[in-house]
Amino acid sequence: MTREGDADALHRQGKERLEAGDRDGAEAAFRAALALDPDRTATLNNLGNLLAARGDAAGALSTFERAYALGSRTAVLLTNYARTALALDRVEDAARLAEEAVGAGPERDAGHVLLIRALGRKGDFEAACRAAEVACAGNAASGALLNEAGLIFDRVGRKRDAIRAFQQAVSLLPEEAAVARNLGDALRRAGEFDAAQAALERALALAPGSVDGLESLAALQITTGDCEEAAATAAHAATLAEPSRALELGSMRLFALTHVDSVAPDVLFEEHVRWGQLATRAASTSAEAAPEVARTKSGRKRVVYLSSDFRDHVVTRFLEPVIAAHDRTRFEIVLASTGSVVDAVTRALRERFAWADLAGRGREDARRVLRELLPDVIVELTGHSGDSVLPLLVPRIAPLQITYLGYPGTTGLGTIDLRITDEPCDPTWLDASYVERLARLERTPWAYVLQHVPPVREREAGPPTFGCFNRATKLSPTTLHMFARVLSAVPEARLVLRTRCNAASAVRRRILAAFEVFGAAERVVLQDDAPSFEEALAAYSSIDVALDTFPYHGTTTTCDALLMGVPVVSRLGAVPAARVAASILGAVGLRELAVDDADAFVATARDLIRDTTRLADLRATLRARVTAGAIGDPRSLAAELERTYAG
């Protein structure tokens, strides 16, 4: 037999052993074939695939490179080469190779998928969307391609296009649980909650033990206010997940528990501490303090703000005016983003500030990028809300690590040194509720400066009206019971509840049932979210008094109400989430509206809505109190933060 014949036989033997599950034997056969015939591109392709499957991405890449250098341009080789380049973060190479794969033959959908994915990873979302549009034109697109198109459309906020793509993908791949889950997630983000529930039920019926499916269901339950059930769903998913993923699900569970009014403060604290201990044990190295060395040569301290929410999000509304006011001669500001959603706000931030994109990276890769930034200070902005960044911060990366803005409570993580707060929000008797030290500012830790605010209008004609524009997640049983008592105490009044979840049948039933007990359901007006933020602000013109939620206070909604001349009545509690109003209302001289119990809440709301003279005065003066006071002064807040960062 010739050497070529021997190589052919060894190549076939390698494929047979691979099909039989004998990876070691397959690799040995492929390498023996290449020893006889080094230029066999088909064998190089098979060996590259085998190495990639075994986790040797670098070895796979060099093997594909060799086949490419020998002139192989098959769609299969180009697709495999592009996929491996993308896995190694060689995004430019991956995009180029995927584009070649698209033009290499009839089986081009895999190339389109990788091209869309690579352009998205590259940050060229406009090109990624164009590639998706071109690939899906006509009726020949595969389910996998439509699914990838849906993912990129969803990422840039093209909600209807994303839903349409996922629906088409589901029709082509009716047995694929992941596609049904993607549809459910997109429907949730678009506010179509009943349809989202149906899609996620389908996904879990196809894959009952799917961690991804359970996580998506928990996210929907949180959004629609079923937080106790969400905590149970996340806990169940965590028992099925590998340790790294279990941490993320544990964080989601803590966020849900923070909204549950029946959880005792000491239990809530212990659950956070337990999560922090798990995170520390799961870390690959110990969480010892980083050496106290100068991190930058410029003499400026490098402060990295770390978040998944650098987009049109409430955290960014509070943060942007503050970081814009930082003293750039003393502080170098970097925004490190793990967020998958990109919008106009994201793009504007990327143009104005140094940017590190961590989206789509594995945890260790994201940590590597953060370490290479050489931060003096990391300020994390998520806590346990949303897509938490906390697991990235154990083991420690910066000498000083701080939690701020995104979460009203302890992280439970020993590598977080400080929480930014103030005395009204976190009085000294709450020290035992934190593992972090509390950096109490001399002013409120929130600054809220909006560029386009509709004018404060005179109260519209109609009955006395209470309002609450908080998300359904915060409408706990205690909250709804207090609101119902308020309507019972003021029989001439109505209550407007505006939340994007009111279209969900289960949410409507839950809300109205609480008021039916007091015979007040007919005086509750359920409204969906306004189409725009400006219209949402303008809706306060029909409200006399805003009612705050408990035990998780509003923050943005409280500031919005005050800006629009509407006072807010709040009930304080023994957990950090139930203390926010003490700080914000105190900053505008209305500390007396933050009361200590449910009876006082009802009495204060009743008396205030009947004091028409005071309401008229507040409508005329509250905006000036906000804009001329601490809340409207991001420069003084930036200066206080800088003193904290400087140590």
Would you write up a description of this structure?
The protein is an alpha/beta fold and 647 residues long. Among the domains are: 301-449, Rossmann fold (3-Layer(aba) Sandwich), CATH 3.40.50.11380; 465-632, Rossmann fold, CATH 3.40.50. It is 53% helix and 9% strand. The strands form two sheets. Strands 3-2-1-4-5-6-7 form a seven-stranded parallel sheet, covered by helices on one side. A six-stranded parallel sheet has the order 10-9-8-11-12-13, sandwiched between helices. Strand 9 (494-498), helix 21 (505-516) and strand 10 (524-527) form a beta-alpha-beta unit. Helix 6 (91-102) runs antiparallel to helix 7 (109-122) and helix 7 (109-122) runs antiparallel to helix 8 (125-136). The longest helix is centred in the middle third of the chain and has 18 residues, at 265-282. The radius of gyration is 28 Å and the shape is elongated. The relative contact order is 0.07. The model is unreliable at 285-294 (pLDDT under 50).
Characteristic key phrases:
single chain, 647 residues, alpha/beta, Rossmann fold, 7-stranded parallel sheet, 6-stranded parallel sheet
